[in-house]
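#random but structural
TW: two for the price of one
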Amino acid sequence: MSKTLTLKKKPAPAPAPEAVKKAAPRPAKKPVAQPKKPPEPVVPKSDIEAFYAPCPRGLAGVLADELREMGAARVEPQEAGVAFEGRMALAYRANLESRIASRILWRVADFDYRNEMDIFEGAKKLAWHRYFGISQTFKVETNAHRAPVKSLDFVTLKVKDAIADTFRAAIGKRPNVETREPDHRIHVFLDPKKCALYVDTSGESLFKRGRRDHVGEAPLKKNLAAGILRLAGWKPGMALLDPMCGSGTFLVEAAEMAQGIAAGHARKFAFEKLNGFDQLAWSRMKDEARLKERPASFLPIFGSELYGRTLDLARENLIDAGMESAVQLKQANLLDLSAPAASGIIVTNPPYGVRLGEKEQLAAFYPKLGDLLKRKFAGWVAHIFSGDPEIANLIGLKATKRTVLFNGAIECRLYEYRMVAGANRDQ
């Protein structure tokens, strides 16, 4: 009787890793419904954001230098501000430390448009509820340069409607509009082809340093004064004199710069209310800024005024800034002054006539000012900021530099006069 022998097949050897990789994929199974993804973070994965810092016209160059010192990238000075890039922490730092910027704006959209409805649709594409909360108020402001729109007010209204519609679609409610003191400001900038939308990270303008100011008749904004000091080349440790100091704006800015005090150390900012605000990083940044401060001590910074009541304003501002012991004030006629050091920088904003009779008085004053600088300030560099076009002709000195600046809407000049030591002796 014969038996049938059955041989068991050996299992096939496991394919090599390379073979596994090259094997044909199996047919895809029917996709399983996945849970909805959480909303994407406001800050993209690259972590790099685009910003724009407006400033008084004429100061974009020195503002660009200031931002570079803070670590800003792709810095691009423009006519009335500076575009730059960096992480969101840079916006915190620029708000805290910039003495020249008016605001720090975060660009959240940039698109082509032809009419108001294009702007509405472009603004509606943004998930505005990811930037701020339903309980917070907002305001929209629009500026344009040669834009093909009929009404900026209508553009403002359409962007406001787009923000409200986005909130309703996402969470069923919309935030309130507040025109006076909103939690957030949305800025719309239009050129002939492009619309850019910005979230204001500053809130109130940065020249508002967060304390009460005692002002005279024609006060300079603090960021304009800080920019002029930078244009003048003044640095801490150099002697500084403002012989017509008014309420002391130049003096306070210079004293804070010399003591290493951050411009925004005493105020709040809008970015502190934005979704995703990094409180830990902000607290650390403020602590680091405080460590850079130097104790108040006497500085070679001098100011004078003819009238005691005006000098009192300067003194009160210095007291509020904690600088009353660091700056030397003196009530005196400018024409009786002598140089307080062998060399230094004069920065001043003399009055310019706007009322009847003032121009005649100034026409007699300017030659005396030029004569004083020649006789008593050899070795100094004088920077005179004025909106009076006659000063250049009447002062009797040859300006080594003229810089166009704007004090609000008033076109002004910053005149530089170098008083060479030994060349202008008393006659």
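TW: number two ↓
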Amino acid sequence: MKRLWSLTGGLVLVVAVGLDMIFRHHVHAIFWWHRVPAFEVFYGLLGSLVLVWGAKWLGHAWLQRDADYYHEDNA
């Protein structure tokens, strides 16, 4: 199942980069990153990965409790 998700993600990435290369309207770009092919695709991918991994780290480091959290002896 993990391989299927990886292949699907790779295919979506290739299609998004291909569409960005075909339908480029960056002739009068204001900022330098608008001239870089597929910059927005990779920036969005990097941003989403940082959000997911950051939330995962926060959950493991601070939010989750042990399975026997309510069965500890406080004596």
